[in-house]
Amino acid sequence: MTNNLYHYRAYVTSVYDGDSFTLEVDMGFGLTNKLRVRLYGLDTPEVRRAKGRSEAHVIQGKEIRDLVRRLILRKHIIVKTFQNKKYDARKGKYGRYLVHVWYEDSYGNWHHLNDVLSVLDGVRVMDDGGSIVT
Known about the structure:
Layout: E1 7-17, E2 20-28, E3 31-39, E4 42-43, H1 55-72, E5 76-81, E6 97-104, E7 110-112, H2 113-117, E8 124-125
Parallel strand pairs: 3-6
Antiparallel strand pairs: 1-2, 1-5, 2-3, 4-8, 5-6, 6-7
């Protein structure tokens, strides 16, 4: 029974980049909550040019963002939040909830978004401590 705790149905209202988006989360009992979230365990290229980022990095970030938009924007998904030892939802350094996302394709098959993105060039897989694995 406890394996399904912290899984929620949500609707994706916006996708900022490949690993950050805004959701309307169905909390049950007719309650919804609008939350900014970040994919747990992945780091995708940024979509804005900043010091130290090449134009190629930004283009790659926009391509991945556009893929994520095609997959989940304005669609219902399933999210899993992560809990810390005090049973509070884990947040990243910018205050976004850390989540895993599953989406349904047009054939009714469910896919884990991390699995889809982790094989793309430029996407870094992170361990629980935030260190780069790949």
